[in-house]
Amino acid sequence: MNDIPRAVITGRRVAMAGLIIAMVLTVLAVVMLIALWATRPVVV
Question: Which residue of 14, 17, 38, 41 has the fewest C-beta atoms within 10 A of its own C-beta?
């Protein structure tokens, strides 16, 4: 009854990990952009 191949489970785990990593990288990029924008030299 164990018809589910391990490749499918591994693929789902990799997909979830990739999605989480992509989300974290996106958040970090946004935070860096906001930090750079907030600390930009103010030209009067």
Answer: 41
Question: Domain limits at 24?
Answer: 1-44
Question: How many of the other CB atoms lie within 10 Å of CB of 26?
Answer: 10
| Planar angle of CA 36, 40, 44, nearest 5 degrees | 160
> Distance of CA 14 to CAs 4, 19, 22, 27, 38, Å?
16, 8, 12, 20, 36
User: Whole-structure pTM over 0.85, yes or no?
Assistant: no
Give the tens place of pLDDT for each residue, 1-44. Answer: 577 788 888 999 999 999 999 999 999 999 999 999 998 887 77
